[in-house]
Amino acid sequence: MSYLEDDLKMALRRTEPPEGFAERVLARANGPAPAEPTWWDYLMVLVRPPRVQWVALSLIVSVMIPAAGVYRKERQARAEGERAKQQLVFAVHVAGTKLHRVQQKVLEMGRMDTRL
Amino acid sequence: MKILRSLTLCVLVGAAGYGQALDLKNLDKLAEKASDKVVISLDGSVLKMAAKFLSDADDPDSAKIKKLVSGLKGIYVKTFEFEKEGEYSPSDISAIRKQLESGWSRIVDVQSKKDGENAEIYLKTGAADGGLAIVCAGAKQLTIVNIVGKIDLDELSELGGNLGVPKIDVEKAKPPKKDD
């Protein structure tokens, strides 16, 4: 008989359960059903490392932060552009109105000259 | 060497472009006295950005303004309205007129005693890219407009005519017959 067989026999030898084991198993089986997991249990699942959720969350955050920065920058540029547009339209209208009024005056004076 | 030459050229062109705008800083002091003021300063880069935001759907004039500003390098407007007469002095305007003495030609000078408003229009001469200056001085109002770049006066006037003022075509309008 080899040492291996001896070792296996020793490892797989029949042992008696500890005292009161059968009673404890029966009591557990007949006891109340485990409670339904609450929202807190679900939340705690997320924070139990290491989890795929953590990886997913990190990925989302790493994408969201630069995206938010780009969005903010674009929004700022758009606001500046809109403001510049309003100023441009107003400036052109002021310049145009003044030029137009001068033209009107020249025209009025021309009319007056022809009347005289 | 080529890069250095290009850079020098860029700096010179930039300086020339900047130098074409009138210096209106002497009018800043009027802002405190004015009851209403409008100060608009749009240089080339801001003009380009603003033009990008002009869409035909916004306003029928947008397309015209877009076309008008395509050749411009700057628009500077200062308008002051005062509660009382004599809030600004003639020296405020003469400082600007002095800048318009060389390189500019006065094409219109209207002096109206009836409403006390004087208006002058200057065009930049001898420069490839042109320019326009309008000086309107009333008893209680002062407006200076400086446009740097090539500008179509008819188009600009037309845009002014659309702002509640009926359009008048100076060339086409016939004077009334002389009464005998």
Distance between the termini of chain A: 144 Å
Which residues of chain A sit in consecutive blocks of at least 5 with pLDDT less than 50? Answer: none
Element-by-element helix/strand order of chain A: HHHH
How many individual β-strands of chain B? 6
Please, what is the oligomeric state? Answer: heterodimer
Fold topology:
The complex is a heterodimer of chains A (116) and B (180).
Chain A lengths: L2 H9 L9 H10 L8 H8 L5 H64 L1
Chain B lengths: L1 H18 L10 H4 L2 E8 H9 L9 H8 L2 E10 L8 H10 L4 E9 L4 E8 L6 E7 L3 E9 L3 H9 L19
Antiparallel strand pairs in B: 1-2, 2-6, 3-4, 4-5, 5-6
Give a verbal description of the structure.
The complex is a heterodimer of chains A (116) and B (180). Chain A has 116 residues and is an all-alpha fold. Chain A has a domain at 36-115. Chain A is built from 4 helices and no strands. The longest helix of chain A is centred in the last third of the chain and has 64 residues, at 52-115. Chain A is rod-shaped and about 135 Å long. Chain B has a domain at 37-161. Chain B is globular and about 40 Å long. Helix content of chain B is 32%, strand content 28%. Chain B has 6 helices and 6 strands; from the N terminus they run H-H-E-H-H-E-H-E-E-E-E-H. The A-B interface holds A 78, 80-82, 84-85, 87-107, 109-111, 114-115 and B 38, 40, 42, 46-47, 49-54, 59, 61-62, 65, 68-69, 75, 77, 79, 108, 110, 112, 119, 121, 132, 134, 136, 143, 145, 147, 153, 156-163, 165, 167-168, 170, 173, 175-176, 178-179.
